[in-house]
Amino acid sequence: MSIDNKEIKAIENERRVDHLINLVEKKTRTERHLEEHSDIAGSKENIEHAKRVNQERENQIENLKNIIAHGENHSNDQRENTEKRLVYSEGYLNHNADHMDEETLKNAKIKQENRKRQLDQLK
How many CB atoms within 10 Å of residue 63? Predict the structure, then answer.
């Protein structure tokens, strides 16, 4: 009894869908917890950590959605585009950081970290 390529891809996609559902549920629970218990969520570091974890989940969700919808080769294009955005944004930040307000600069640096993590996942 041999399993052909089509069956293998179907099994892989089924596993991906299960993982996608799991990630969405965890992300939703964390967001709900932060909303409902923001006054008792603990230290600012814990809240920031939860937000970073949820951003990572969001990246994984997007990656899985793209693979399921477009196939695995799509991640190569995504990796190239993410690398380009990372390099471009790094140059922009180096050139304009002195002229940016604190919040915008902080958000841009967070996005850069997210792009680096996303690249690690795509490799």
Answer: 20
